[in-house]
Amino acid sequence: MVALSALVSTVLVCILMMKIKIIESSGHHCPVSLDIQEFKKYHESVKEVLHKKDVITDVSLLKAKVLNQIHPSEQCCFLLKLGRFYMNNIFPKLEISSIKEQKGLNHLANSVLGLKIELKHCHSSMRCPCGDQSHKIMEDFRETFYQMETEAAIIKAIGDLNILIRWLEKNYQG
């Protein structure tokens, strides 16, 4: 009985170690199939209209310095949380009167939705761990967002996507 217990323990340890190796070999990094150039094009199509409405110039929701400090193991989680926030709090509440800009906004939202779905799948397969850093960055983002008037915060969030795009180009392109 002791030998069987030892064997079961050994097998469990081996399985656990194999799972850890699989997670480590994935590098905690999920592939991103988002067409960044297309995402950039859609952002450009709405940026001019929103830039005129962005009256708060001394606040940024996304900061390049902060994004560049995100540990690679937490980038996926950060993008997942950010995508979720944009899909729940920004895109549904933003209205643009021009049909052309509305189409661009719809494409932009669909790109973020696709990225969010892709990263959610990656997260559910345990290749996208969430740690303190991604939680803290998103908490700071949310706090700054909610301190602003709603429409101004939404416009700022869409405008700040150019910072995210540059970060995505640096970390996920190529």
What does this structure look like?
75% of the residues lie in helices and 0% in strands. It is mainly α and 174 residues long. The protein has a single domain, classed as Growth Hormone, Chain: A (Up-down Bundle). Helix 2 crosses helix 5 and helix 2 runs antiparallel to helix 8. The protein is globular, with a radius of gyration of 20 Å.
Q: What's the number of helices?
A: 8
The helix/strand class is: mainly alpha
Q: In angstroms, what is the radius of gyration?
A: 20 Å
Number of E strands: 0
Spell the H/E element sequence. HHHHHHHH
CATH class: Mainly Alpha
* Average pLDDT level: 77
CATH architecture: Up-down Bundle
The profile of the biggest β sheet is: none
Question: Could you outline the blueprint of secondary structure elements for this entry?
Answer:
Blueprint: H1 2-25, H2 36-53, H3 64-68, H4 72-90, H5 99-124, H6 132-147, H7 150-159, H8 161-172
